[in-house]
Amino acid sequence: MIRSLAILWFIATAGLPAAETDLLRFSNGDQLHGTFEGLKEGPAAIWKRDDVAAPVDFKVDQLRHIVLRGGRPLKPLASLSHLALVNGDRVPGTLVALDDSSFTLETAYAGVLKIPRGQVAMFAPSPLGGRLHYHGPFLEDEWRMANASFPDGLPPAPKEGEGGEQPGRWLFSGAAWYWPGKDSGTALLKDVGMPDRSILRFDVAWKSRLSFAVGFHADFMKPKRAGGEDAKPADAAPRRLAGFSPGDSTILPEIFGNSYVLQVFSTHMMLFRTSVGEDGEATVERVQINGNSIRLGETGKATIEIRSNRLSGGISLFVNDEFVVHWTEGSAGAGEKVSYAGKGSGFGFVVQTDESPVRVSDVMVAEWNG
Asked: What range defines the domain where residue 260 resides?
């Protein structure tokens, strides 16, 4: 009954803008806007909607997330310090005491909490090594899309029944971005967020064989347009959508500008420098390493973490919290700068093969102490 109600409300409101600020995400992928009223015995979440006469109870074992206020806190946490419990929950707080039976946390939301030691899996006093710069996605308008076939920006989304060749678009839903698996070529970008020493961490899930690129420390500089700056799309030959084939890297500078781009496949990965010179010419160079094998499978999910230091030239990759590889982009003497291709603070994602649905969620950017 719970699942039927959720599906019914989801279908009825899918095309309407949500006036409510809270979001309920079910374990089967359904979602429901409304207002979170609290918890009751069962345990169950109490959910209120303007189009329903009385609040409705949902069993918590059928819920995945409850997102409050669009994911924005009333007040940001002063620290990322937290306890990780054995059931997967995280309890933010500062450790003030520890003995053989319990952890004692000082919290801004519930005062002093004492948690039995047997319920604690890990204590993380500084899990990301520095200040958090971004966590999401919770707001669609913090991101933008780009496609190499449309250097002046994507055209308006077509109305129902309209034809013509159109670029694919990422879909935002319930604190995640989804690539539906149609023609490749459209990137999902965030213009700012990455400091010089940075950790970029995100969850990615996919169906069919994975072919996925991540650009980081990108400035999104545009290459010189064929025919000169005065050339207009209307003066050129009919546009042909610029998609990707697995392993293709030629279009990457047109999307990310001066950047590093990590290509991740089901069995291996590659790192590229992408550059746009002062003359507007775009180049791509592969960063060489001794080994590049990984095992992700044709369908699955993974947590990807990229640690990059623009000041020293170091770049490290972790998959599912396990170290994979480290690249060193040159070394500099006293008073010299490291030759580092990434000139900006932006990052983004692009799927590089057709018919390969992808979900990106739980994106975090933080300062790295490396």
From this structure: 132-156+168-367
